[in-house]
Backbone:
């Protein structure tokens, strides 16, 4: 089979599409013919050895997929060959076939196409876990989303609106903010041309926001933290800007602010039952027309490396989907 392979941790440019042996599932695993796989920011980190998880080399990146079950390993009862499924696999999705732990696989929801299924699991799963399980966002609260035109940012906007929140989207260009408005953002801030904290203060009558969703980090973290209200919650989702910020802890003290980490992948492993409930909620919202991943581009395996490179430099809006068999 063909697969995008990381042979050593290092620059994204080292990734190559190679012919490798088609794997066989062990006990508790399934092999999936990958029809669609989505590109995410952790793909850029994992191949450079910068992510929390470091797979044994060589490996294929790609954390989420949609496809058809081809073979099941010993002990797998809830899945069968020919079944259309989606999965968060962590890595291995940028290949024609992938081996996945059966517990991380669920049926493709009715009425959902493969591209949408592949683009749903990680970004929407992360955002729902962050807003509901970690931050406990309440109806009527105001949420500030940084990096709002990225995959997790757009998902956070849609989910927060379903939870009854007011959403302020922050991004670095007008076309990105226009996209945020199409998925439901109430207000927008261009943090490349506006003072983030002052603009948020103006939009909240000086009260600040109850919650910040931050997958960006870098220079935006401190002003966004300062823009939170009394007992505001700050969700640390990722560091797409590249720098892990250091903030003065007196900012937490002065308004009894709470800084909360979000590690969805480990949460799925520790609490698979809650993950299943969340995925069922997302499937319901999709069926009702309330959420829909924004897919900006579709590429074959030969275009996957470039897509990861552009993701790393924050040049992607929404999601890029890889078709391994194209």
Residues:
């Amino acid at each position: 089979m063909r697969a995008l392979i990381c042979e050593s941790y290092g620059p994204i440019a080292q990734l190559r599409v190679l012919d490798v042996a088609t794997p066989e599932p062990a006990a508790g695993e399934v092999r999936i013919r990958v029809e669609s796989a989505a590109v995410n920011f952790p793909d850029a980190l994992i191949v450079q050895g910068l992510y929390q998880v470091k797979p044994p080399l060589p490996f294929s990146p790609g954390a989420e997929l949609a496809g058809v079950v081809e073979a099941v390993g010993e002990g797998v009862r809830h899945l069968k060959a020919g079944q259309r499924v989606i999965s968060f696999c962590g890595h291995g999705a940028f290949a024609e076939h992938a081996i996945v732990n059966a517990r991380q696989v669920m049926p493709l929801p009715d009425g959902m196409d493969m591209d949408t299924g592949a683009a749903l699991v990680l970004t929407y799963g992360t955002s729902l876990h962050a807003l509901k399980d970690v931050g406990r966002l309440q109806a009527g609260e105001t949420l500030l989303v940084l990096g709002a035109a990225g995959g997790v940012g757009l998902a956070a906007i849609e989910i927060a609106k379903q939870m009854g929140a007011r959403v302020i989207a922050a991004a670095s260009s007008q076309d990105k903010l226009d996209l945020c408005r199409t998925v439901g953002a109430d207000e927008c801030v261009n943090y490349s041309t506006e003072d983030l904290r002052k603009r948020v203060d103006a939009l909240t009558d000086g009260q600040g926001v109850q919650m910040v969703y931050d997958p960006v980090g870098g220079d935006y973290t401190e002003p966004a933290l300062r823009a939170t209200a009394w007992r505001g919650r700050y969700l640390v989702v990722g560091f797409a800007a590249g720098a892990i910020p250091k903030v003065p802890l007196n900012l937490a003290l002065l308004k009894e602010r709470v800084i909360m980490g979000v590690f969805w992948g480990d949460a799925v492993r520790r609490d698979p039952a809650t993950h299943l409930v969340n995925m069922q909620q997302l499937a319901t919202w999709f069926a009702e027309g309330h959420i829909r991943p924004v897919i900006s581009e579709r590429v074959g395996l030969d275009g996957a490396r470039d897509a990861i490179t552009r993701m790393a430099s924050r040049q992607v809006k929404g999601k890029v989907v890889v078709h391994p068999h194209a």
About this structure: The chain is about 30% helix and 25% strand. The mean pLDDT is 95.
